[in-house]
Amino acid sequence: MILETRAVAPFYKNGFVVGCERTREAVLIDPGDEVDELLDVAREADVKFRSILLTHAHLDHVTGVASAKAALSVPVYLHRDDLFLYENVVQQGALFGLTVHPQPEIDVFYDLAPLYFGDYEVRVHHTPGHCPGGVCLQIGKKGETGTDLFVGDTLFAGSIGRTDLPGGDYPTLMRSITQVLFPLGDRATVHPGHGPDTTIQRERTTNPFVLEYLQP
Ligand SMILES: [Zn+2]
Ligand SMILES: [Zn+2]
What we know:
Blueprint (H helix, E strand, L loop, with lengths): L1 E5 L8 E5 L5 E5 L5 H10 L3 E6 L11 H8 L3 E3 L4 H5 L1 H7 L12 E2 L5 E3 L2 E7 L8 E7 L6 E5 L2 E2 L2 E2 L9 H12 L7 E4 L5 E2 H7 L1 H7 L2
Parallel strand pairs: 3-4, 4-5, 5-6, 10-13
Antiparallel strand pairs: 1-2, 2-3, 7-8, 8-9, 9-10, 11-12, 13-14
The structure holds zinc ion (ZN) (2 copies).
The site of one zinc ion has 7 residues, from loops.
């Protein structure tokens, strides 16, 4: 699997190029302010994008959608429950004192059907709590259990997503982490929206927020 990650100031939010090494087909995950770097690296890797996939619609994860869509002309995917955030991206920016431009329309709302690029399959899991329409994108070879999880801001190395933003809810977040993400398997690699990669096993056994929640 081709995997490239980039992050830039001010949010240091991870954007990803994930591609098939055989066919060079790829998906672009959460293009934000680092979108130009992602498009550059994709050009060097000679990949051809099939889609733009959003884990959720907080502004740091979507500010590059307009540039990406203009460059790639591929459909943009989002969970329906985050549409209100996406449509309010300009106001989200204003809260941070940032000028953010409106982004192009969402083309497809995720449903239960997997998506494909090259030899790979993306399974979409609804993981609300940080926001209503958060998803985990589970990626692996077609027909196999994917072991790369792009979780947005649901789970971080040693931390969890905040739940104090509109539509956030702590019990819902903890249910998503423990009942949706953990069953995807201890050996799965977690690629959070911010900070370094981790694994399900590490977070299940050492994440202080998880341990506190699971305490009998
Ligand atoms: Zn977020
Ligand atoms: Zn974020």
